[in-house]
Amino acid sequence: MKLALSILALSALVACGGGGGSGGGFAPIAVAPVPAAEPKQDPKPLQEPLIPVNTNCVQAAENRIDCDLVPMEGPYGPGVPAGQFVSFTNRTGVYLQIDQIHAYTAEREFWSEYCAYLGGIEHLTTSQFQTPTGSNRGEVACAAKNIGEDYAPIRFGQRNGMLVAPGEMVMLNSHTEPSAINHTYSIWVSVENTAVYSWRQPQTDRVIPCDDQMQSTDMTPWRNNTDRELHLIGASVYVETPSSKTPNTIGNACIYVLTADGSQKYANCDAAIRTKGEVSFPLVTVAPGEYVAAQATNACKSGSHWNWASFLRVW
Known about the structure:
Elements: E1 58-61, E2 64-68, E3 79-80, E4 85-89, E5 96-104, E6 112-119, E7 128-129, E8 137-145, E9 154-155, E10 161-164, E11 169-176, E12 183-191, E13 195-201, E14 208-209, E15 214-216, E16 222-223, E17 230-240, E18 252-258, E19 264-268, E20 277-286, E21 291-299, E22 305-314
Parallel strand pairs: 2-4, 10-13
Antiparallel strand pairs: 1-2, 3-12, 4-11, 5-9, 5-10, 5-12, 6-8, 6-11, 7-8, 13-22, 14-22, 15-21, 16-21, 17-20, 17-22, 18-19, 18-21
């Protein structure tokens, strides 16, 4: 939250309104998600670390373990020593989707977080960047735990997974205050069927120092740069506040679709968007040239900080 894996940015409020921006798009291979079976195997209790399954995992660098990303009936993943991270590389030649991600650590005394990144090693950064296909590279999901807690799973919707193209890499990295600790990572992977993209809002991370006033995150929309209609169906919300209570909640948050000229086409300010967790809603269309965006506001006492981001599910 304070260091490498925090999620967010801050600037002047552009509440419920326009704004330009860049980014967006969608890969041509994806088709409209259709109802699919629930994840193939229910996760074991988070209090018990999953037994790592080695899918050609090797020590690729001093601080990185690399594994193959392959479809499998159950979860797999390695244990990672303190100070190291893991990458999963799609060498199958076909599109895959990650249905869920789990992390486990026996540490209970500190706040801790981990995040997922899509692309290559150069995309291990707390930002996202537009690509010609629209499968934005960079930070695509995060989860945090308070003192005495386990991590909640990272999911991309009940029946959806995050798209991973051939040759792409998914990286998982953790940050614990005050130091690095061991983690066991487990992922559920299947062949692409109901895949979505994860579009980060704001686009770039910044922790927000509290100043006793109402503050807001950046309004940094992604544009639909394709020549066809896209769809927005939900989000994964990350929230950290000075409070140690669960769930962490901030003052207000909204998800938007803006027209090509920046006018508001759709706004969803449901209370669930203020709290970390999964948010689903009926499909919203995003026409070529239109934008998707999200923004949060909060007030907190000086001397601390807060953090909010939404990872929007788009196909």
